[in-house]
Amino acid sequence: MKLRHYLQFSDFSRAEYEYLLERTRWIKAQFKQYKPYHPLVDRMLAMIFEKQSTRTRLSFEAGVQQLGGSALFLSTRDTQLGRGEPVEDMAQVVSRMVDIVMIRTFEQSLLERFAGVSRVPVINGLTNEYHPCQVLGDIFTFIEHRGPIGGKTVAWIGDSNNVCNTWMQAAAIFDFKLHVSTPPGYEVEAERAGIYGNDHYAHFADPMQAARGADLVTTDVWTSMGFEAEDAERKRDFSDWQVDADMMRLAGPGALFMHCLPAHRGEEVSADVIDGPHSVVWDEAENRLHTQKALMEFLLLGKIA
Ligand code: CP
Ligand code: NVA
């Protein structure tokens, strides 16, 4: 079987995503019926974290164990990576001892260097540039609630960060329109997202106009991990980019609200929106588990159905 990695959303084709979504539906149904499904017996996942996490660690660790495998948690603090061991050396060693690796780190280039010498599949568990596992779970969640996402409009309000870049890649693959509104100075760098041309993307100076008529409104923290030094400045710059009840009214009664979490109520989203009727954030968090189980199955076993 050819070695595959999942380093950014554009690593998979539309057909591969359709397969993954179908497998996710089946794997989730088994789980909900308490039916054991153990295709990954004796397989071990190493999870390397250079940043904090609740959902990503939980969903990968629980997910691989539910599939019959096991997980190892490694943090920078406890490994030689934190003392300057070259990432290529770490990749050589780790990938001789485990079957699959998930990494959460800062630069995408570090992840790519690891994958470049790894003998086993490597998954991006978030970098400064991308968070593909998040948007995979989000798209599955949208489809569960509203059916196919092709032709729909997704509004991204706030920072043009790792999750936004990933939505941009997803828009091209799933053929939906992404409306992005950021404060001046925080605009999307289309090249960074690997997007050329604007068939699936439109920038809006006014966040309310970006959200108007959207099928899904989504946002994220104003200050991502690794950018904490800019926090005070960002709080000032982003103050008009909050998703609130007025914005959701403009989106429309059927619009969904998503947030990858963790959220800051009163900053990027008001409490009445995240805790209100448009919000599907808990389904979104849960679906990380089911989609990533399908992802690990695919990377380790290939297409099985
Ligand atoms: N959404 C997400 O990736 O959450 P964690 O940072 O808790 O893993
Ligand atoms: N953009 C956020 C996502 C956290 C899951 C960050 O990178 O901190």
Task: Give a nutshell description of this structure.
With 305 residues, this protein is α/β, with parallel strands linked by helices.
CATH top level of the largest domain is: Alpha Beta
CATH topology type of the largest domain: Rossmann fold
Fraction of residues in β-strands: 5-15%
Let me know the number of strands: 9
Question: What is the H-and-E element order?
Answer: HEHEHEHEHEHEEHEHHEHH
Q: Bin the helical content.
A: 40-55%
Q: In whole angstroms, how far apart are the ends?
A: 16 Å
Provide the domain count: 2
Structural class of the secondary structure composition? Answer: alpha/beta
Task: Catalogue the ligands.
Answer: phosphoric acid mono(formamide)ester, norvaline
Low-confidence blocks of residues: none
3D architecture notes:
The strands form 2 sheets. This protein has a 5-stranded parallel beta sheet with strand order 7-6-5-8-9. The chain has a 4-stranded parallel beta sheet with strand order 2-1-3-4, sandwiched between helices. The chain has 2 domains: 139 residues, 3-Layer(aba) Sandwich (Rossmann fold), CATH 3.40.50; 151 residues, Rossmann fold. The model has no long low-confidence stretch (mean pLDDT 96). Helix 6 links the parallel strand 5 and strand 6. It is 41% helix and 13% strand. The protein is globular and about 50 Å long. The protein is α/β, with parallel strands linked by helices and 305 residues long. Phosphoric acid mono(formamide)ester binds next to helix 2.
